[in-house]
Write a structure and sequence with these properties.
The protein is α+β, with helices and mostly antiparallel strands. The chain has helices at about 25-35, 40-60, 80-85, 155-225, 230-265, 295-305, 305-325, 350-355, 375-445, 450-485, 485-490, 495-500, and strands spanning about 15, 20-25, 65-80, 95-110, 115-130, 140-150, 280, 330-345, 360-370. The protein starts with 13 loop residues before the first strand and ends with a helix.
């Protein structure tokens, strides 16, 4: 897949020490790596190359062909005529004729459906007895140019070029499918990447919460030793420290799970160097708000979504097939015309001179009509094609409706997450102030360690909610880019097949 994306070189593991390997990855690098290694992407790329070969196959129907033929025939028959055998013939004797023929024909089909050919023939004839021939052996040859043009069935530029156009559309369809798969993989990567970021941030919050609880426990122990605090006050702090240690262990395990999900999409398991490396995301969620215009987003999606382009191309192909099937309902009416120059001589050279002297010229024209009786097969194919065209058109309209709904949902999710980020930020700030107030009250004996621990827990929850809202906002932006059909452009990723 390395030839299908334009980006920097794939990331490599950086050994920090003998026991730990860290791999710093940006979101773009993660997407590029996944596109280069994902099996579905490779299969889609191969499908695109296969369809490109099909275009060449359809074009090859117009390649000229050269046909060479040679034959030798010896004939012996009894003579039953003095006219053939001569006046001296008084008994049955053999009449011998020897013929040698060589043909060379080059022919090709042209886009109108006509077949044109140019042929050369030479025939050596020897007979025995030979009472009346001027030359024995004799060489007779001819040069012939011929064209056969269908006038009804199989006639016309459209009919004979339509399969090439269909093959080209199939190439575009495979590219659309390739791009759709690349977009799906990119969206999966960005979602897994941000979920890993969230897991890491959750661990940071859990550790910070642990530090607060340990700090409170340390202060309580000092006061208990000084006799200014009852020993029971340390029990709640110790229990909370143990509880928050469990939260750290759970958060560390969740990081490993999210790392594995991201590695699975990126196919790190095939690389022994980096399959065990700890991933360090370098991109961080930001709360910068982006304006999203619904109607403009829908318009862009209608222009960019490869699934819709795929269905539109299939509709175009179905329409071309219907026109082809309609042509095949006609009877066959073929016009054949040609010109021939003939020569004769006692040697090949003299026969050729006679031929190319244009002294012996022939022209011919023929009209052939074939009328199918019933023609049920062609009619059924035509009716089937009309239904398939209608079906393809309906699929386009259905996909357009699906895209509109998908874009509306994606835009609404972005706007909702913008509000969530603002709300959770405000909640975290207020919870921070509440903790500060509880700590001040506790320092003057107007609160208990239990209340402080509760305020600490509320702050940890608020910090986690803010992180989740920011990560969900980033994920929703990626989903919106996918709904618009521009997730690859958003990360400045180009497919080599698309450039071609």
């Amino acid at each position: 897949m390395a030839s299908s994306t334009l980006s920097s070189a794939p990331p490599t593991a950086i050994e920090m020490d003998t026991d730990l390997k860290l791999l710093s990855l940006s979101l773009k690098d993660s997407i590029v790596y996944a596109l280069r290694n994902n099996f579905d992407i490779v299969v889609s790329q191969l499908n695109s190359q296969i369809e490109n070969s099909n275009v060449t196959i359809e074009k090859a129907k117009y390649d000229p062909t050269l046909q060479l033929t040679g034959s030798i025939e010896n004939t012996e028959v009894p003579i039953n005529s003095q006219l053939v055998g001569g006046l001296q013939t008084t008994s049955i004797s053999p009449f011998v004729e020897q013929g040698k023929t060589a043909d060379a024909i080059i022919q090709s089909m042209i886009p109108t459906g006509a077949t044109v050919s140019l042929g050369y023939n030479i025939f050596r004839d020897y007979v025995e007895p030979n009472p009346f021939r001027l030359m024995n052996p004799s060489y007779q040859n001819y040069v012939e140019a011929k064209i056969t043009q269908p006038l009804l069935k199989g006639a016309g530029w459209f009919y004979n070029r339509s399969l090439i156009n269909i093959a080209r559309n199939n190439k575009k369809i495979s590219l659309s499918q390739f791009k759709s798969k690349a977009m799906e993989v990119s969206n999966s990567v960005q979602e897994a990447y941000w979920n890993l970021v969230k897991a890491i941030e959750d661990l940071r919050v859990a550790k910070k919460s642990m530090e607060r609880a340990e700090d409170l426990l340390r202060k309580n122990r000092i006061q208990v030793e000084a006799g200014t605090l009852a020993p029971i006050e340390t029990v709640d702090a110790e229990a909370e420290v143990a509880s928050r240690l469990e939260a750290i262990i759970t958060a560390e395990n969740e990081i490993k799970n999210k790392e594995d999900e991201l590695k699975k999409i990126m196919h790190f398991t095939d690389n022994n160097v980096i399959s065990d490396a700890a991933i360090l995301p370098t991109d961080k969620p930001v709360s910068e708000q982006k304006k999203v215009a619904l109607q403009d987003t829908i318009r862009i999606a209608m222009e960019k979504r490869p699934e819709l382009q795929e269905l539109q191309l299939k509709t175009e192909n179905a329409g071309m097939q219907t026109r082809r099937r309609k042509n095949e309902l006609f009877p066959s009416l073929d016009l054949t015309g040609g010109m021939r120059y003939t020569g004769l001589g006692d040697e090949v050279s003299s026969a050729n001179d006679s031929t190319f002297s244009e002294s012996f010229q022939s022209e011919y024209f023929a009209l052939s009509l074939g009328i199918p009786i019933g023609n049920r097969s062609a009619r059924s194919e035509y009716n089937k094609s009309k239904l398939e065209t209608r079906q393809a058109d309906i699929n386009v309209k259905k996909k357009e409706l699906d895209i509109v709904v998908e874009v509306r949902v994606a835009v609404r999710q972005v706007m909702t997450n913008i509000e969530r980020v603002a709300a959770t930020k405000k909640a975290r700030e207020l919870t921070q102030k509440r903790l500060e107030m509880e700590e001040k009250k506790y320092s003057v004996g107007r609160s208990t360690s239990l209340e402080v621990l509760r305020a600490q827990e509320s702050l940890a929850i608020a910090e986690g909610n803010e992180i989740k809202a920011m990560v969900d906002y980033e994920i929703s932006l990626g989903s919106l880019d996918k709904a618009r059909g521009m997730i690859l452009e958003a990360y400045d990723i180009r497919l080599e097949e698309e450039k071609a």
